[in-house]
Each structure stands twice: as C-alpha cells, then as structure tokens.
Amino acid sequence: MANTSIVEYMNVSGYEGYYQVSNLGKVRSVTRYVCRSRGGKQILVGRLLRNSKSGPAQSTYYSVALSKKGKATTKRVHRLVAETFLPNNKGKAEVNHINGNKLDNRLSNLEWCTSKENKQHAMKTGLNKNIGEGHYAHKLCEKSVRDIRATYVPYEYTIAMIADEYGVSKGTVQDVLENSTWRSI
User: Fold this and answer.
1) 136-145 pLDDT, tens digit each
2) How far apart are CA 119 and CA 110, in angstroms?
3) Mean pLDDT over residues 113-131, rounded?
4) What is the C-alpha separation between 125 and 86, in angstroms, rounded?
5) 47 and 77 in contact (C-beta within 8 Å)?
6) CATH number of 9-124
7) Which of 27, 51, 64, 161 is deepest in the core (most CB within 10 A)?
8) What are the extents of the domains in the chain?
9) Distances from the Cα of 83 to the Cαs of 31, 73, 89, 112, in angstroms?
C-alpha cells in the first residue's frame, strides 16, 4: 500500500489524459488542449474538482462529475480511489469505508469487500441502525418480541392467537419465533 502521507495522483481508468485521482480522495482534471468547433485549439487548465454529495441523507457519498468527448457521468470518489489504487484480486464488488465515515475517501480507509462483508461491518460498528425498532416498517417493539418468544407454546398458545393479540400477521410471528427477524434480541 502506498504511503498515505504523500499525495500521489494516478489517471482515472477510462479518463486517461482527462482526470486523475489521489490516494487522499481528491479528483482533478488534467491540463490539456481541446479542439473547438471552429477548428482552433484551446488550453483547459487542470483544477481540483469539487465534490458533491449524492444519495439519501443517511448514506451520503462524495461524487464528482467527469466529462469526456461531450459525455458527462457522475462517479463516486471512493470507487475511483479503490479502482485506481487498491488491487481487487478476489473480485469483490463493493468498497467499504473502514472507519465508517463515508466522506473519508483516503486510500488507507478503503477496502474491497463483498455485499455480505459490508453489511456485517455496518452491523458490527453500529452504522446500520435500520434494525429492530429503528427499521421504518417495524410492527413490534422489543418487549413484544421478548413476550412472544416467552409465551409461545405449540398447540396451546398458537401463532394465530399471538398474531391476533399483537395485530400482526402469522408470518410476522413465525419470523420472530424462527429468529429470521429481530435476531439482535
């Protein structure tokens, strides 16, 4: 891995001669000549690109707009850094922010991972608050889940009876009892 205290720029794949990305998560355009529509040439002076935030408020990432031959695209900065500097020998599809800060795009804070590894990291570090009562679609509270698990007795106090009592579907109760939901309790 490169020394992260020294800024190192490399060409963005597919945009060689147009853009470069640094190991510290900065993207810049490259000074170059462009042909104008009337046949003349103009020099475009390279500059540091401004990051913009993309995604829902909870999962904001920095992105930049890249343009080549009149076609503009938006790229997430962490992916540009990872694709440029991090070998992906195992073919993992996602990039994880090790410290959990999605705006920290330094090479030392990024690693390739699978979707499962990324989700496990989010759960382990408390980044994913979308479980239990924090989930937008929760129907039960933690106390109700504990009560359901404690009171269920097959053929006496049935799933259908519990579902009626708590105002949820039988499937919801079944999921609670099988630990396919509310696993954290």
Assistant:
1) 566 788 888 8
2) 15
3) 80
4) 23
5) no
6) 3.90.75.20
7) 27
8) 9-124, 132-177
9) 22, 16, 11, 9
SS3 for the chain, per residue? CCCCCCCCEEECCCCCCCEEEECCCCEEECCEEEECCCCCEEEECCCECCCEEECCHHHCEEEEEEEECCEEEEEEHHHHHHHHHCCCCCCCCEEEECCCCCCCCCHHHEEEECHHHHHHHHHHCCCCCCCHHHCCCCCCCHHHHHHHHHHCECCCECHHHHHHHHCCCHHHHHHHHCCCCCCCC
40-78: per-residue pLDDT in tens?
888 989 999 998 887 665 458 999 999 998 899 999 999
- Nearest to residue 88, comparing CAs of 113, 53, 106, 118? 113
Q: Which residue is associated with the tokens 């590894």? A: 117
Whose structure tokens read 């993992």?
92
User: Contact, 76 vs 62, CB < 8 A?
Assistant: yes
Residue with tokens 């991090």: 86
Distance, in Å, from the CA atom of 175 to the CA atom of 9, rounded to the nearest integer, reads 50
